[in-house]
Amino acid sequence: MANFSYEVFSEVAKRKTFFAAATQLRVTPSAVSHSIAGLEKELGFSLFVRNRTGVKLTSDGKKVLPVVQEILNTEAKLREEAARINGLNEGRIRIGAFSSVCINWLPDIIRSFKKTYPNIELSVIQGNFNAVAEQVRVGTLDLGFSALPIKEKLEVIPLHRDPIYCITPKSFTPRADKIIARSDIQDKNFILQQIDYDRDTKKALDTYNVSVNSIHYSIDDASIIAMVESGLGLGILPELALQKLSGNVNRYPFQEHFYRTICLISHAEAKQTPSTRAFVKEIQKYLLKRYGDEWAKQFANLF
Q1: What is the mean pLDDT of residues 102-129?
Q2: Residue 76 lies in a domain
Q3: How many domains, the chain?
Q4: What is the CATH number of the domain that holds 11?
Q5: Which long-range CB contacts under 8 A does 102-111 form with residues at least 24 apart?
């Protein structure tokens, strides 16, 4: 089975249509269809179920996708290692991250990395915590920024404890002036992203016995700020998400301290390419510069 068939399979699984995969691979849709048919014949089972909107993986297809992706990643690692031996500065790194890391960390990290490694190709995909972890697991991403806990069997490096704040309208004043206590948020509505409700945000709300009926879901961090500003409820957001958001709102710490722990996820270091290992070092350098000695005491020895 030629590796081109593996590339086609991986791309169709990602794009979910033969046409989109063909466009990405710069071949005809019929070539993609022929390649998938040949691979299915050789494997002895169907890889995709066709429907009106495109295709989706069969249960067997889901089982073999990580194996195929590992073969493709190993081939990319071989090419990059050969380039390194030959003294060339080449490679590819596929990065996944959630929005506040994409906005606040990655631009500076990538800019600095590119000064040293200008010929290494970087691609960034934005997604939620679970989506990023799943793509790292199957091998379509090399590195991912997510938040603990990570259920997938991956290498996990904690990076930063990100404080979580209560976001209120300007007209709201806590009874203790600068700290949110249980009595401040009784019978209050909360606005948050649904994906956040199974992690540290849920821990904060559960601690304060906030009813599920009092929770309303929003699309993103900016819309949470807008809704709080309009007096539709209170919000909960971590510090990093607030860095480049503006609005006529206040932020207060809770009486109990809550954090989310941002982490870096990847496959075992032995599977990482030289360029990926170099990018991890760039992340470490950036965080040390941004957060200083206190960060180094907590996290530097984890790399």
Answers
A1: 93
A2: no
A3: 2
A4: 1.10.10.10
A5: 102/126, 103/243, 103/244, 104/240, 104/243, 104/244, 105/145, 105/240, 105/286, 108/286, 109/279, 109/282, 109/283, 109/286
**Distance between CA atoms of residues 106 and 100, nearest Å:** 9
For residue 125 the two structure tokens come to 């995909």
Does 14 fall in a domain? Answer: yes
Nearest to 99 by CA among 198, 234, 242: 242
Quote the percentage of the chain above a pLDDT of 70.
Answer: 95
Q: Can you list the alpha helix ranges (DSSP code H) found in the chain?
A: 3-15, 18-25, 29-43, 59-85, 99-104, 106-116, 129-138, 200-207, 221-229, 239-242, 274-299
The CA distances from residue 134 to 23, 50, 141, 228, in Å, are: 24, 23, 9, 32
Pairwise pLDDT comparison (195 vs 118), residue with the higher score:
118
pLDDT band at 117 (very low <50, low <70, confident <90, very high): confident
For residues 36-56, one letter each, b for 16 or more C-beta atoms within 10 angstroms of the residue's C-beta and e for the rest, the string is: beebbeeeeeebbeeeeebbe
Domain endpoint, select from 36, 62, 88: 62
Q: Hey, is 40 helix, strand or coil? A: helix
Task: Extract the tokens encoding 41.
Answer: 């014949």
Partners of residue 216 on adjacent β-strands: 191
CB 8 within 8 A of CB 37: no
Q: Which domain does 42 fall in, by range?
A: 1-62
pLDDT band of residue 1 (cuts 50, 70, 90) is very low
The structure tokens 């089982």 sit at: 63
Judge whether 169 lies within some domain. yes
Q: What is the pLDDT of residue 201?
A: 79
Phi/psi of residue 49, nearest 5 degrees: -105, 125
Count of other CB atoms within 10 angstroms of residue 160: 23
54: left (phi over 0), alpha (psi -120 to 50) or beta: left
